[in-house]
Amino acid sequence: MTSVSSTTEPAPPGSHIGRAAPFFAGIWLFFLLEPLTEAWDHRDELRGMLGILTTLVFALVYLALWLGARDGREMRGRPGLSRALVYLGALMILGVAMVALIGPIGAACSPFIAVGAIMVLPLRQAAPVVGALVVADLVLFHVTDAGSPAGLLFGLLAASVAVLGVRTVVSRNYELLRAQEENARLAVDHERSRFARDLHDILGHSLTVITVKAELAGRLLQDDSPAATDRARAEVADLERLSRDALADVRRAVTGYRDVTLPGELSRARMVLEAAGIDAVLPGSVDDVPTDARELFAWTVREGVTNVVRHSGARTCEVRLSATGAEVRDDGAGDGPAADGPGSGLLGLRERAAAIGATVETRRLSPGFSLQVVLA
């Protein structure tokens, strides 16, 4: 009887187990054969025929209850309360009818009622139902002097405990699945927000500068003087450079942040410093930075801000960018990381700088610490 509990765990739709589950649930109705046989022995009497019919209807209602619980996956494997009460009410009425028609042997239905109650009701409501069934069986066997109900009660309690354990596992699995789905949704939302923020940081200022320079170039082209023409050519050249840089940054962002970008690192620096309670003084533009130095300067900002947060105890961090260099400085205790220590991020920064002929300089300020990359 205890194996009835194994059928309460909902299987994924379309799985072989899910399709075969009604068959496995029906197997345990084998234990209703004894009351059915008793009714069959009295088939020449009205109570015998009614006992057969009642037992068969009981089995069908039990299967319907189980199928309803299996289909109620969205409610932790339990159908709605109204449906549950209809199922249980029908089972109880049919169980009483079985006892009335075929005697104490009809009480074999009580473990099925207990299992059904635990399947579809909250524990605080299912426990009184199980307790009432135990009392009812004890009273029935005592009044009718039908022998010891120990076997029946053991089956009832064992099935109830087993189904309770399985239901707890199912409930926790549902909660885990919901938590995983919520975490996945939050991760997607966070990534969307981060992408939108970085894309805004990458394009916002660049497009503004491009618009202003395009308007300026348009006005200069209306002037036929050589100076205006030369200035217009310079502005158009800047427009080309800025648009190419913005396009490269956007491509890096779209391809999954595989490469660091200077606008993206400035955005990240602002968030990291604010989270650490450090005032951030950041440049509003990266237009002056040469295209071939942007990745190096981005690594400089990342390494410098990371060191400020980890080592400095500073209240303010400033990032300075120019056409010839990038600097990250703070007003902390001046205790920067060991520049040449093994595994130091500064060692990797020096290697990147050397690749394009730049140098990395670190110095203690009064107060504070400075990390600077200077182009040759």
Write the layout of secondary structure elements.
Elements: H1 16-27, H2 33-41, H3 46-71, H4 81-102, H5 110-120, H6 123-144, H7 150-221, H8 226-254, H9 262-275, E1 279-281, H10 294-312, E2 316-321, E3 325-330, H11 345-355, E4 359-365, E5 368-374
Parallel strand pairs: 1-2
Antiparallel strand pairs: 2-3, 3-5, 4-5
How would you characterize the overall build of this protein?
By secondary structure, the protein is α+β, with helices and mostly antiparallel strands. It has 2 domains: 2-183, no CATH class; 260-376, 2-Layer Sandwich (Heat Shock Protein 90), CATH 3.30.565. 66% of the residues lie in helices and 8% in strands. It contains 11 helices and 5 strands. The chain has helices at residues 16-27, 33-41, 46-71, 81-102, 110-120, 123-144, 150-221, 226-254, 262-275, 294-312, 345-355; strands at residues 279-281, 316-321, 325-330, 359-365, 368-374. The protein has a 5-stranded mixed beta sheet with strand order 1-2-3-5-4. A hairpin with a 2-residue loop joins strand 4 (359-365) and strand 5. It is elongated, with a radius of gyration of 39 Å. Mean pLDDT is 78; it is low at 1-18, 71-79 and 338-343.
Features:
11 helices, Heat Shock Protein 90, alpha+beta, 376 residues, five-stranded mixed sheet, disordered N terminus
